[in-house]
Design goal:
Elements lengths: L4 E7 L3 E7 L5 E8 L5 H13 L6 E8 L2 E3 L4 E4 L10 H9 L3 E5 H11 L8 E7 L3 E7 L2 E2 L36 H13 L6 H6 L9 H9 L3 H25 L3 E5 L7 H14 L10 E4 L6 H13 L13 H23 L1
Parallel strand pairs: 1-4, 4-7, 8-11, 11-12
Antiparallel strand pairs: 1-2, 2-3, 5-6, 8-9, 9-10
């Protein structure tokens, strides 16, 4: 298996990011484009275009991390809040189109796989990975097994309600966590402040030519890194909400490590330090328990595509529908059966 390369594709609400990845997680070639969100046909055509641009003889399988609920056994993308993808036989479609083994998973699960196997969560038995982008996605790995839940919905952390009757979310509820601690929340608050003509937003507005609608998440992050006070404050607000939500996750899941990735994580300590303070203040049982470590993802925005590529490599060995209870349980079961037969053989020899 040494040297095998797979194509990993991370499909988010704002961009499609793809790369050719080796077994060590090194990305040799990469491509990205905005995610079309008008129609499903336009969306699928864009994904095809990105894949076609990176395919060559080195690519032996394709993995997709989708911001969608996934029926892992059937290989279907069931539904999504942020992309026009509903009830599509995605794995079969892509496998037929490109004549290669294909694996699919939720993008948060893909990122969790990458960070657990190769990144900031290496060596931890219980990790939670968060991807902060358009919304908040994530994944859970416990003792080497990805926890997808009965219906494939585990890790949809962004839709935990943290403010009853709060801001309306695209999912239909009010007060979801991602309305306060995501890239969309950062941009919304920055633009709202700029539209008031507040003098505190003057420097930020200058960087985008004076039009509030031109402000993007990377603009705010870049300004904050340069020390622009309002941008620093906006990121600190997002970080505070992030830390409070992570404390809720810790109360439910008690992880050893929480890995924070996605586009917003590019802010580094400007996001992480406020999150750490809010987490420590809000954590259940604080002072009487070990605190989970909050760390930035090693692979940052590439974690999803690296994890998807890892899943794709395994798809060459074992059918992807066997991944619903872990990485590749049938292979583990075969190994366990082989070990059991060996033990029984040794026991029979000893008795003879």
């Amino acid at each position: 298996m040494t040297g095998q390369r797979a194509l990993g594709v991370d499909v988010g609400g704002t961009k499609i990011l793809a790369g050719v990845v080796d077994r060590e997680g090194e990305v040799s070639r990469q491509s990205e484009r905005p995610t079309p969100v008008s129609t499903q046909d336009e969306f699928l055509a864009a994904v095809d275009e990105v894949v076609e641009g990176l395919l060559d003889h080195d690519v032996q399988a394709i993995g997709f991390g989708l911001c969608s609920t996934i029926d892992q056994q059937a290989g279907r993308a069931v539904s999504s809040v942020h992309i026009p993808l509903h009830d599509v036989d995605f794995r079969a479609r892509m496998s037929e189109r490109f004549n290669l083994p294909v694996a699919i998973d939720n993008d948060g699960n893909a990122a969790a796989i990458a960070e657990w196997k190769l990144g900031a969560g290496q060596g931890a038995s219980h990790i939670v990975a968060l991807t902060l982008g358009t919304g908040i996605g994530g994944g859970i790995v416990i003792d080497g097994v990805v926890q997808r839940g009965r219906w494939g919905m585990a890790g949809e952390f962004g839709h935990m309600v943290v403010v009853p009757d709060g801001r309306r979310c695209e999912c239909g509820n009010r007060g979801c966590w991602e309305q306060y601690a995501s890239g969309n929340a950062l941009v919304r608050d920055a633009r709202a402040l700029a539209r008031t003509n507040s003098p505190t937003a003057y420097q930020l507005l200058e960087t985008v030519g004076g039009d509030p609608d031109n402000i993007t998440g990377p603009d705010v992050t870049a300004a904050a890194i340069q020390g622009e006070p309002t941008s620093v404050e906006l990121l600190a607000d997002v970080g505070t909400w992030l830390g409070r939500g992570i404390a809720n996750l810790a109360a439910a899941l008690d992880p050893e490590v929480v890995v924070i990735g996605g586009g917003v994580s590019a802010a580094g300590d400007l996001l992480l330090l406020p999150a750490q303070r809010a987490f420590s203040r809000t954590l259940t049982g604080r002072g009487f328990r070990e605190e989970a470590r909050l760390v930035l993802a090693r692979f940052r925005n590439d974690a999803g595509l690296i994890g998807a590529a890892d899943l794709a490599r395994h798809a060459m060995i074992e059918p992807p529908d066997s991944a619903q209870f872990g990485f590749w349980p049938r292979r583990r079961q075969r190994r366990a059966s082989k070990a059991r037969r060996r033990r029984e053989s040794l026991r029979a020899r000893a008795q003879s």
